[in-house]
Design a protein that fits this description.
Blueprint: H1 7-18, H2 20-27, H3 32-38, H4 52-65, H5 69-80, H6 100-119, H7 124-148
Length: 150
């Protein structure tokens, strides 16, 4: 599995591809130095600050911890509207089944496993793990749908 990019790497790429002057226009002139700090590798600098992407991640995680992951998902869906076309919104998934029927059956199996964990009174960590797996299964079904539609 590829390693997730760190936010400083994303800022570095944004600065390289869009230019520092563009980012300053969007974020404001007073943030010029801060933009440079966002895009520095923390392994080689002591002068590092929390960037807006890190802050959003913390906010979304906190919303999730308070049972409002739906609000975080809506915010992420809003951010996704900046990307053109539906295909850019496909979840990154692997191991797609060969047919839609197989994918849907896997969805039912995952949701049933979640229901059983809840009925059995398993710990919140186990139930959350089952929920995450069920969501991933449904995302795979959607990805196969998007891949196979005309």
């Amino acid at each position: 599995m590829p390693k997730r990019l760190e936010t400083w790497q994303l800022w570095h790429a944004m600065k390289n591809h869009l230019g520092e002057s563009f980012l300053i226009k969007v974020l404001g002139r007073r943030n010029g130095r801060t933009i440079r700090l966002y895009s520095q590798d923390p392994h080689f600098t002591e002068d590092r600050c929390k960037d807006p992407l890190q802050a959003l991640r913390i906010i979304f995680q906190e919303l999730s911890d308070y049972g409002r992951a739906d609000v975080a998902r809506k915010a992420i869906a809003y951010l996704k509207t900046a990307l053109p076309g539906e295909d850019s919104l496909l979840p990154a998934v692997a191991n797609l089944k060969e047919t839609m029927s197989e994918e849907v059956l896997a969805d039912f199996s995952a949701v049933e496993s979640l229901r059983k964990a809840i009925d059995d009174g398993l710990t919140a960590n186990v139930v959350e793990s089952k929920m995450t797996f069920a969501i991933e299964e449904i995302e795979r079904t959607f990805a196969l749908y998007m891949k196979t539609r005309d």
